[in-house]
Amino acid sequence: MRRFIRQLIGLLRSAAMFPALFAAYLLQVCVMPRYPVGGVTASMVWPAIAVCTVCFGKLRAFWAGAFIGILMEAMQPTLTLVSLVAYPAIAVLCAFLFADKSQQKLEYERSLGKPGRNVSPYVRTLACAAVSVALHEVVSLVYIALGGTTLNAGHIGRSLLNVGMTTALTVPVMMLLRPLFGKPHVRRRRKKAE
Fold it and tell me: Which of 35, 141, 178, 194 is the most exposed place for a label (fewest CB within 10 A)?
C-alpha cells in the first residue's frame, strides 16, 4: 500500500509539470515581449524546462522539451521545425549533464572512491538553464547564418544578453516551481553508527 501511495504522489507531482510549463509558455508569449532589455526578451520556458530536468530526469525532460517545442512550433512558427527538434534535444542533452543521479550511480561512484553525491539542485538548475539557453542561441545563430545573414557582434551580443537574463530569471522560477514539484531541497541520509 505504501508503494502505491508513493507512486500516486509521484504521478501527481509529474502531472503538475504540464500546467507549470503551459503557464511558463503563456508568460513567454504574452508578458515577456512587453519587457525587453536592449531589444532582447528573456526566456521563461528554459528555466521551467531546467527545473523539470533537474527534478524529474531524462524522460520527463524530453517530454517537457517536446511539449514546449510543439507549442512554440504550433503558435509561433518563425523557424520551421527548429523549435520542434531543438527543445526536446537540448532538454535531453542537459538532462544527461544536470539531472539527479540515481542511488545506484552514487553507490558506484562511492565504490570507486569518489564522493558519490549530487551537487546542490539549485546550482544544477541554474547551470542547466544557462547551458540550455546558450545551446538554443547557438542553434538560432547557426540557422540565421545558414539563411544567408552575415553574423556580427550585435547578434552575438544579443545572444549573450539573452543567456544572462534567462539565467537570472531562473532564480525566481526555480524558487516557485521546485516546491510545487515536491523537491524543494535534497535530503541527505545520515549513516547509522555501526
Answer: 194
Which of 91, 63, 85, 48 is closest to 178 using CA atoms? 48
In a domain, residue 8? The reply is no
pTM for this prediction: 0.81
Q: pLDDT tens across 88-125, in order?
A: 999 999 998 888 777 777 777 778 877 777 788 889 99
The Cα 68–Cα 44 span in angstroms is 11
Over range 50-69, report the average pLDDT: 88
Locate cell 547557438: which residue?
138
For residue 49, the model assigns a pLDDT of: 93
The CA distances from residue 119 to 6, 15, 54, 56, 99, in Å, are 25, 26, 11, 15, 10
Q: Which three cell numbers stand for residue 167?
A: 539565467
Number of domains in the chain: 1
DSSP string, 63-118: HHHHHHHHHHHHH--SSTTHHHHHHHHHHHHHHHHHSPPPHHHHHHHHHTTS---P
Whether residue 4 lies inside any domain: the answer is no
Closest CA to 125 of 187, 186, 67: 186
Query: Which pLDDT score is estimated for 189?
Result: 45
User: Which CATH number fits the domain that encloses residue 64?
Assistant: 1.10.1760.20
